[in-house]
Design a protein that fits this description.
Blueprint (H helix, E strand, L loop, with lengths): L3 H8 L2 H11 L1 H4 L11 E2 H8 L3 H13 L3 E6 L2 E6 L1 H14 L1
Antiparallel strand pairs: 1-3, 2-3
Helix pairs in contact: 1-5
Length: about 100
């Protein structure tokens, strides 16, 4: 079950939509040395791409994670992020059928 209200809240911000778009095609959005095929993209790569402070980016990522749109994976000291395609697919299907 997804929380559509949290997803709408997350998608209301343009940076969060950008992050989701970047993670949709990580090899196009980030240098290859930032992309880990098994884990996703490290948070610091997203922060570097955005040009914003780490705390600002972390707050936006927290909203996306809480909404279920991103999946964090800790590997050692690093946190990698990837999209939860099933949640995104379910949400878009609900929008398509209910609006």
């Amino acid at each position: 079950m997804i929380d559509t209200n949290l997803i709408h809240k997350a998608l209301a911000n343009p940076l969060r939509r950008d992050i989701l778009a970047w993670l949709r095609a990580p090899f196009e959005a980030f240098p290859n040395d930032y992309v880990n095929l098994g884990c996703g993209v490290p948070v610091h790569a997203i922060q570097a791409r955005s040009g914003l402070a780490q705390s600002t980016v972390s707050a936006h990522i927290a909203v996306l994670v809480e909404a279920g749109l991103l999946v964090p994976k800790r590997v050692g000291q690093w946190i990698f992020l990837s999209r939860d395609e099933e949640v995104i697919r379910t949400f878009t299907e609900q929008i398509r059928t209910h609006l």
